[in-house]
Automatic annotation (TrEMBL):
Keyword field contains Transcription regulation: no
Pfam families (UniProt xref): ADH_N, ADH_zinc_N
The Alcohol dehydrogenase-like N-terminal domain, residue ranges: 38-156
MF term (GO), any: ribitol-5-phosphate 2-dehydrogenase [NAD(P)+] activity
Natural source organism: Paenibacillus qinlingensis
Enzyme class: oxidoreductase
Its EC number(s): 1.1.1.137
InterPro entries in alphabetical order: ADH-like_C, ADH-like_N, GroES-like_sf, NAD(P)-bd_dom_sf, Zn_alcohol_dh
Protein name: Ribitol-5-phosphate 2-dehydrogenase
Domain of life of the source: Bacteria
C-alpha cells in the first residue's frame, strides 16, 4: 500500500467552522491536498461529544487550547463520498468517518513502516504518529473532509443515518470491551455510569458480545436515566450498600469528571480477586484510588480511549439488527439541528452545553451546492 511516491491528485477547497477561541466559531476557507489513497467526504450528520464541548467552552487546559486552536470540531459523524479512486468506496456512498487516523494511513504507507506500536501490533489505536479529527486537526465540521480511504467505512443499507452516526461512540465501547472479550462468556459485569457511555457499553455487551442482560448490573445516580437501560439489575449508587458482599468479575467506569473518583473506588470495592477494571471516563484532574485493595485483590486496571477501524466493522454489522437499532434509538433527540452557518454551529454547541440531557445532540450539515 506504499503510495508515498505518487503525486497529488488534486486540491479541494473546504469551508470549515473553526473554533478560534472558546465560544468563537469562524467560517474559514481552507484548502486540502488529496492523495491517491485518500477520499473526499461531504459530512452530512455530526454528533456532539463532551470532548467537543470542553474545547468550545474553554474547559481544556490553557496550554492545550493554545496548541490546538483554531480547529474545526466534531469527530462523530457520517457523510457522502464526493471523490474516490478506491474501488471499495465510490462517489455517492454513505460512509461512517473513523476519526482516529493512524500515521501509516495518513502517509499512504504499510503498517510495518509506521511507529513501534504499529509495527509490533501493540494496538494501532495508540499509534504515536496518528492524528485525531477535532483534536489537534480540523474535524468533521467542514464541507469537504479528506481522509484515508480506509477511514471511510460504507454504511450498510439496513442502517439509517441517525443510527449510523452513533457508530464511533459505540466503537469506543466495543474497543474497551475487546480487552476482556475472552472473559465475557461467563463473567458478571458491572457498569458505573448512567449516561450515554455507560448505556452504549451495555448495548455493545448485549448486541455485539451477546452477554445475557441478567449478568449486567448498572450503577447510576439518576432514576430517569437508569430506567432507560434494558438490564434488569439497576442500582442507585447513593442508596446501595457497597459492603453487602455482591461482587463482580469485570467493572466498567463510564462516569468521568468529578464522579470518577467515587466510581473507580466503588468498582474496586465490588470486584472479585483477579478482577478487571476498564477505565473509560475522562477527567481533567488526577484521581486518587484505593491502591491497597488493587494490590490485595490482584486487580487489573486497563485504560481505554478512542477506537480504530477494526472496531467499527462489528458495530455496523450489529446495527443492521432492528433490535439493536431500537436500543440505540433511545439516545436519539426528537429533532436534528440544521447547520447552515458558523453562527448556527456556535448556537448548537451552546445549546448542547446548556442542555446536557441524556440524548445526543445531532447536527444536520446543510452545505451550499458550491461547497
Amino acid at each position: 500500500m506504499n503510495h508515498a511516491h505518487q503525486a497529488l491528485n488534486t486540491n479541494v477547497v473546504s469551508r470549515a467552522y473553526r473554533l478560534v477561541k472558546p465560544r468563537d466559531v469562524q467560517d474559514i476557507v481552507i484548502e486540502h491536498e488529496v492523495h491517491d489513497w485518500e477520499v473526499v467526504v461531504e459530512p452530512k450528520i455530526g454528533s456532539v461529544c463532551h470532548a467537543d464541548l470542553r474545547y468550545f467552552t474553554g474547559q481544556r487546559r490553557a496550554e492545550a487550547l493554545a496548541r490546538k486552536l483554531p480547529m474545526a470540531l466534531i469527530h462523530e459523524g457520517i457523510g457522502t463520498i464526493i471523490q474516490s479512486k478506491n474501488p471499495h468506496v465510490q462517489p455517492g456512498q454513505r460512509v461512517v468517518i473513523v476519526p482516529n487516523l493512524q500515521g501509516y494511513l495518513i502517509k499512504g504507507l504499510n503498517q510495518d513502516q509506521c511507529c513501534e506500536t504499529c509495527r509490533g501490533n501493540k494496538g494501532n489505536n495508540y499509534c504515536t504518529h496518528g492524528r485525531f479529527l477535532g483534536s489537534g486537526m480540523d474535524g468533521i465540521a467542514q464541507s469537504r473532509l479528506v481522509v484515508p480511504a480506509a477511514s471511510a467505512i460504507p454504511i450498510p443499507a439496513e442502517v439509517p443515518d441517525e443510527i449510523a452516526v452513533l457508530t464511533e461512540l459505540c466503537s469506543v465501547s466495543y474497543q474497551a470491551l475487546s480487552h476482556v472479550a475472552d472473559r465475557l462468556t461467563n463473567a458478571n459485569i458491572v457498569i458505573f455510569g448512567d449516561g450515554p457511555v455507560g448505556y452504549l457499553a451495555a448495548a455493545m455487551l448485549q448486541h455485539v458480545y451477546k452477554v445475557d442482560l441478567d449478568r449486567i448490573t448498572v450503577f447510576g445516580a439518576v432514576p430517569e436515566k437508569l430506567e432507560k437501560f434494558d438490564c434488569p439489575n439497576r442500582k442507585l449508587v447513593q442508596e446501595y450498600d457497597f459492603s453487602s458482599g455482591t461482587s463482580y468479575d469485570i467493572a466498567l467506569e463510564c462516569t468521568g469528571g468529578k464522579f470518577s473518583e467515587g466510581a473507580i473506588n466503588q468498582a474496586i470495592d465490588v470486584l472479585n480477586p483477579g478482577g478487571h477494571l476498564i477505565l473509560m471516563g475522562v477527567t481533567e484532574e488526577r484521581v486518587p484510588i484505593n491502591t491497597r485493595d488493587v494490590l490485595e485483590k490482584g486487580l487489573t486496571l486497563k485504560g481505554s480511549s478512542r477506537s480504530s477501524i477494526e472496531d467499527f466493522i462489528p458495530v455496523l454489522h450489529a446495527m443492521k439488527d432492528p433490535t439493536c437499532q431500537a436500543t440505540l434509538s433511545k439516545l436519539l433527540p426528537s429533532a436534528i439541528i440544521e447547520i447552515k452557518s458558523n453562527e448556527d454551529f456556535a448556537e448548537a454547541m451552546a445549546f448542547a452545553e446548556e442542555h446536557r440531557s441524556w440524548t445526543k445532540v445531532l447536527l444536520d450539515f446543510r452545505w451550499e451546492p458550491s461547497c
